[in-house]
User: Fold Probable molybdenum cofactor guanylyltransferase from Dethiobacter alkaliphilus AHT 1.
Amino acid sequence: MNPAKMSAVILAGGKSSRMGRDKLFLPLGGKPLISHVLDTLQGLFAECILVTDRPQSFSGFAVRVTEDLIRRPEKNSLAGIHAGLSMACHDYVLAVAGDMPFISRDVLLYLCSRGSDEDVVIFRDGPHFQPLCAIYHKNCLPHIEDMLNKGHYKVADFFPSVRVREVDVSSLQSLDPGRISFFNVNAPEDYEKARALIAGNDNLDEGGKR
Ligand SMILES: Nc1nc2c(ncn2[C@@H]2O[C@H](COP(=O)(O)OP(=O)(O)OP(=O)(O)O)[C@@H](O)[C@H]2O)c(=O)[nH]1
Assistant:
């Protein structure tokens, strides 16, 4: 799969309840946390879209901003994937969480290189998928809509209905030796860890986590 012929979607909604304040705007390395993913994706993919349930918050960002189409009160990154896939100009869409500041271009290019004509291309770490750093084809849309309408929000639940290419994270060893790509900022202690990582004086001891 060629990123120059794909859309990228940044998931930027949610409640930040574990952080206690909007985590996407926390300063990190001289810019808002969300800007790290944005800067990584822009220029690499043909198009970049930020999907959120609060579009007014992102009006100052130089990116196309679109709103979740199906709103539910529950925590719902799947609604963001749905809106991104619906609005994207291209059939293949990389969806990445906005709270994942250390995702690298090398890792994303590797993921693209592992896909050919599947509906989902996704990293897998043992029993766990990385659904918020994965490629989805527009073929997934009816299955995602069905899940949202039934109130099922676990992304992987529609995978049995589509063709999925799993990419083992162990193949990333040389591209991501510190295993920080999938580190996401949820709680205040994660933010402190991210600040330490940016400052270059910390490692992730547990191989990254989501
Ligand atoms: N567009 C969109 N993105 C979402 C939504 N919920 C979560 N996200 C994004 O998905 C990613 C993972 O979100 P979580 O950390 O699981 O949820 P959260 O609501 O942001 O945070 P918590 O309330 O602490 O669980 C983050 O980048 C969020 O910005 C949503 O309803 N719509």
Summary: Helices lie at 33-41, 77-87, 105-114, 141-150, 188-199. Residues 205-210 have pLDDT under 50 and may be disordered. The radius of gyration is 16 Å. The pocket of guanosine-5'-triphosphate is lined by residues 11-18, 51-53, 68, 75-77, 79-80, 97-99, 132, 186 (CB under 6 Å).
